[in-house]
Amino acid sequence: MDGECARLLPAVCAVLADARQLVSDDTCLEKMLDWFKALTEAESSLLLLQENPCLTELVTCVLKLEDPSPSIVSFILRLTGIFAASESCFQHLQGEFLSSLFGEEGPINSSLWEDASVRSGWVEGVRSMVRHQSTIQFLCSSGAIDVIFMLQGDPSLFVASAVNRLLVHILTFSLQSETTSPLSMKYCSWPMCAQMIMAHIEESLKSSSVSRIKQALKLLTSVFGCCHDQWTEILWSRIAEPIESLLKEEPVQTGHSLVDLFLSMARSPVFGCPECSLWTSVTHALKFLNPAQAGPLALGVLKCQEWYDLLLWNSLFYTIGIWFCKSLKLLCCIKKKTFLLHLAAHVRLLQPKKGSRSPGAIGGDNSDDSVQRGRNRRSKGMHSSFSP
């Protein structure tokens, strides 16, 4: 921090700590947060606090106010999170402020919590801190992780979305930073924070509350969408059974959320094996979901060119063809096999990614000539089937 900024900072902090001087424009607070974030990335966070005691005095003053402004409280939460991203700075603040801001002693149990900006500031502050193991341990021991679970159903969509991203970040960080050996199917070998999150997901999937189930499915969709590590395969093995149970409900109340989950997983290379149980669940989904739900799933799977060869000849592709027949009410007037041949020809028009394996002949000849001969035979057969 340059000398002029260091000279002006105490006066700025004094204004922010004065409840009589309301900040009418939150834009200046956002700019200050961006400035502090840039400073902490370029310099030592702990040194900045030690050289500028007005910052910790600001936090102390705001905590002592009887009726602080929600925007200032949100600012303090986010500012503290930025500094606590450094583990040394986290330990420096832990004794004085962290429990008072992010624990049960903080705004969680006050009327300030009713303001969405305070809840958002709390979530963003925690998100900034999750960069070291000290934060993970604090979240588990202080009960903050339970607050995060509660905020999944927040009435503010902005807060709920931020919480979903936070849980994904906590789960992936916990597994990647604490794990030094391959993960076991038993949760007792997983990091404690990851165990708590996964137990919460499993409990939510088995809940009678549709909203809780949808929250869990949305979280899983985000996890599988951004994480392509092998532990996601273990995760799927744990949730496959309750997912199957959801598909067998009459009617399926979470169909659209399940479709989003399946498509997110279909794009992951972890589930590229044809024998993966995911494809069995997708096949069941096409049978159990109504047309409005199964349609996007069928089309989405067909558009996943990574699974082009897999889908063309296995039972899942056949199921998709049958689904299209039923949806278009053509099952009575068009033979299933003929329809599937035309659907296969249509799918082949999709340009596979450069370097992807061509389906080739079923017998195993993958040469270009063999592929072309197969296409010519199918085209000739389809032409004769539909000729007047």
UniProtKB/TrEMBL annotation:
Organism: Alligator sinensis (Chinese alligator)
SUPFAM superfamilies in alphabetical order: ARM repeat
Keywords: Cytoplasm
Residue span of region Disordered: 353-388
Gene name in the database record: BRAT1
GO BP, sorted A to Z: cell population proliferation; DNA damage response
Subcellular location field: Cytoplasm
InterPro entries, A to Z: ARM-type_fold, BRAT1
GO terms under cellular component: cytoplasm; nucleus
PANTHER family: BRCA1-ASSOCIATED ATM ACTIVATOR 1
Primary subcellular site in the record, as a coarse category: cytoplasm
Name of the molecule in the record: BRCA1-associated ATM activator 1 isoform X3
